[in-house]
Amino acid sequence: xxxxxxxxxxxxxxxxxxxxxxxxxxxxxxxxxxxxxxxxxxxxxxxxxxxxxxxxxxxxxxxxxxxxxxxxxxxxxxxxxxxxxxxxxxxxxxxxxxxxxxxxxxxxxxxxxxxxxxxxxxxxxxxxxxxxxxxxxxxxxxxxxxxxxxxxxxxxxxxxxxxxxxxxxxxxxxxxxxxxxxxxxxxxxxxxxxxxxxxxxxxxxxxxxxxxxxxxxxxxxxxxxxxxxxxxxxxxxxxxxxxxxxxxxxxxxxxxxxxxxxxxxxxxxxxxxxxxxxxxxxxxxxxxxxxxxxxxxxxxxxxxxxxxxxxxxxxxxxxxxxxxxxxxxxxxxxxxxxxxxxxxxxxxxxxxxxxxxxxxxxxxxxxxxxxxxxxxxxxxxxxxxxxxxxxxxxxxxxxxxxxxxxxxxxxxxxxxxxxxxxxxxxxxxxxxxxxxxxxxxxxxxxxxxxxxxxxxxxxxxxxxxxxxxxxxxxxxxxxxxxxxxxxxxxxxxxxxxxxxxxxxxxxxxxxxxxxxxxxxxxxxxxxxxxxxxxxxxxxxxxxxxxxxxxxxxxxxxxxxxxxxxxxxxxxxxxxxxxxxxxxxxxxxxxxxxxxxxxxxxxxxxxxxxxxxxxxxxxxxxxxxxxxxxxxxxxxxxx
Length: 638
Hints:
Elements: H1 2-20, E1 22-32, E2 41-50, E3 53-54, E4 63-70, E5 76-81, E6 96-101, E7 105-113, H2 119-138, E8 142-150, E9 155-156, E10 168-169, H3 173-181, H4 195-202, E11 212-218, H5 241-251, E12 253-258, H6 277-280, E13 290-292, E14 311-319, E15 335-342, E16 345-351, E17 365-372, E18 384-392, E19 395-405, E20 408-414, E21 417-425, E22 438-447, E23 450-452, E24 456-457, E25 459-460, H7 463-479, H8 485-502, H9 508-560, H10 566-581, H11 584-589, E26 592-596, E27 617-620, E28 625-629, H12 632-636
Parallel strand pairs: 7-8, 7-11, 11-12, 12-13, 17-24
Antiparallel strand pairs: 1-2, 2-3, 2-14, 4-5, 4-15, 6-14, 8-9, 8-10, 15-16, 17-20, 18-19, 18-21, 19-20, 21-22, 22-23, 22-25, 26-28, 27-28
């Protein structure tokens, strides 16, 4: 019994120590939704720890919020607890969020092929994605996840986000799961799938600097590139395998992909490897650094570190419940004291409902904010619009949208405080080859009638994306099988021009020039790839004819000696010696090669009028010879 009592005492001491070691810490607080009568929206962030271990899994019922209105002498004028119905704000819901995460930080973008051929897979993909998101939460990952749908030139973001800012954080589980549920395929016809364009676009998204950045592509067909899939360029992509490699390397992004084996790929009825080998040679399996995860999409194949929770923060927001504040409209000396309680622990904050800490009256005001381009020029009327956003952990909500007039943003009735701003081209254009647009993002504060900074810069959008495209094109341009010195010189000069142009930022005029260049180069490279295939065919045909001729020479050489003229015998010996010496590359250096008519295959049908026997062979009746000519394109490298 004594032993049992002693163990019980130890357990009790341990339990008491555990209970009373919990601590509550105020991390930050803000006032939103300023009201002229002093009844504002308030939010704060607190952490709960048991010793050094974060406490997770608390609910809004575990926290009690009490507001007290006091005068300048500390007299209590009013006191009230915040009721559940008051615990809400512009984000909606119950005004409570938990963000419990480990040190495993990861930003993932899922790029999902939405063409009609994916219809049979899409429900399974949605189910797997939901399991993956739940796994991220269960593993305590500090995650941000984006879901982008692509087909040809189109990128879509299901849910309430936009393609330019598509990430959902750990505090947005419900919103992310809803976005996944909205995923759908489209179309029953063939649409080219621009996987590489989607990757290049995603490479310029705002990944966190200290997180692992991962792109996951889910597609059932080959990626569209500058090489096809068909031998035409109208409306085609100028993305290249090399451009994707450059983007992934420079941005430190991992690429994983789910794709069937080539024999099981969709949309292949119009593709022939013999006609266009460059397309399949640009597939993911040839992409440096890309990791194949098979087919179909299985979320458990994506590796994520499961680590203990290292930080747990609870975000609380509410609308003030002290109606008595209105009785002291704009009078000085009054404060609202806020007490936040969890268990037996308390944290507090206080604020003046009408004045800031320096005695300035706080209210919503109008501001005029100049917008400049990257060269310092003021922008014309309606060139851009601005969105102001409030931030609460992972949450971001628009607080207002404003347009420019004569290069100046007209900001009406802005509440004091800190914001995130985003600049968009007027009309909020999405990315496309044919679109020029301005963008910008940053922090901005409105304090005591002043805005900091006092101007913002609208930058030319997609500069990294477009520069990577043309760098990839130039790399393939000089490595093409029929490239010549002039090709390399052109590429070197082009890249120097691009570096010079982009050294101080790209303005819209320069971006237009860049787009024109890469579309032209893309079309030309597409044609070069076709010419390279034709050159290989010519080379193969010529080499086969050489082999056949050498064989005929060996068989017929001695028989023909003495039967023909002395000149024919001399040609026979000369041809035989040439053929024995020719290597594959030496042969292709010759502008033409003459085979005496006396060596023709008796079964070969000749054209006595000198017309071409094939695209590469002509018969000259006056010289009684075959003339094998290399195409002009092969000599010039065009």
